[in-house]
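Tip: read the tokens left to right.
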């Protein structure tokens, strides 16, 4: 994931910003309403990307991956709509409790840009995605960098017509969605009123995407390491932030570890998960890697 990549990450201030004022208010409405659910995973299970993760002789990458992580951010579904049989196969290879968090196909978000022609494609996408059944987590929509507030009406229609049986998170990347206060407030209100998660992206070159505004009881976080030693301290800060949100009422944590060089993702996860377990009192599997525990890549 090269989005937000910079040449000199040591020059970036990675401090997590203060929460938006609306976050605590929103979380307080559902405090202690349900048990804490925590999912942490990578974006891919491909052996080529996740080097130093799969033991020699691994025959089925997804089957092994799902013994080490309890979820996957399913980026493959962004590029094409898979046949139903593929989803059924994925379902069968993974254990009970495993969750898929698939990205909506680019024909909807990037090519049709939520216009009228996007809806038949979306229907097809949701029809096959539903084959994941109880292993289907939140579906997320990522809009193109140049999709701006001038297309606000398309966003409103999409949100209001989204089928409520599917959980949805939305990621906006054009700077005006966050830097224009009026636009931002309207967007946050729309998402909150419709129970849709507001994706947080923690990446070096786009700190404005750390808006810190949760719009439902779900923290959907896409963390992008910089292949720099600061990656570890950034994850430590996230442990503290998620603990704070838990105390304020957060009950759904969906955290996905990306890297510009994906081979480091399992290693970063192995650093992050035990600290998260200790702080939040959860019991996530700590992924094994072929690199000795405590080793850092940089």
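Filled-in amino acids:
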């Amino acid at each position: 994931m090269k989005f937000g990549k910079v040449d000199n990450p040591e020059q970036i201030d990675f401090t997590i910003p203060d929460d938006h004022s609306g976050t605590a208010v929103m979380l307080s409405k559902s405090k202690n309403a349900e048990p804490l659910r925590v999912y942490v995973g990578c974006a891919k299970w491909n052996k080529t990307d996740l080097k130093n993760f799969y033991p020699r002789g691994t025959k089925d990458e997804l089957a092994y991956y799902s013994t080490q992580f309890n979820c996957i951010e399913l980026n493959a579904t962004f590029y094409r709509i898979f046949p139903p049989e593929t989803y059924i196969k994925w379902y069968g290879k993974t254990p009970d409790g495993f969750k898929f968090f698939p990205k909506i196909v680019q024909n909807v978000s990037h090519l049709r840009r939520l216009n009228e022609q996007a809806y038949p494609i979306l229907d097809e996408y949701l029809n096959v995605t539903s084959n994941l059944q109880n292993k289907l987590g939140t579906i997320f929509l990522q809009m193109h960098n140049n999709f701006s507030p001038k297309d606000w009406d398309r966003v409103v229609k999409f949100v209001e017509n989204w089928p409520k049986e599917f959980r949805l998170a939305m990621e906006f990347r054009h700077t005006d969605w966050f830097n224009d206060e009026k636009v931002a407030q309207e967007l946050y209100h729309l998402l909150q009123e419709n129970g849709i998660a507001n994706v947080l992206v923690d990446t070096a070159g786009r700190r404005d995407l750390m808006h810190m505004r949760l719009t439902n009881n779900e923290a959907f976080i896409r963390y992008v390491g910089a292949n720099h030693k600061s990656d570890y301290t950034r994850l430590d800060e996230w442990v503290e932030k998620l603990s704070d949100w838990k105390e304020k009422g957060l009950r759904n944590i969906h955290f996905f570890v990306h890297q510009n060089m994906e081979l480091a993702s399992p290693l970063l996860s192995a650093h992050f998960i035990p600290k998260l377990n200790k702080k939040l009192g959860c019991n996530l599997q700590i992924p094994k890697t072929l690199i000795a525990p405590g080793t850092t890549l940089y």
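Residues 35 and 261 are 35 Å apart (CA to CA). The mean pLDDT is 93.
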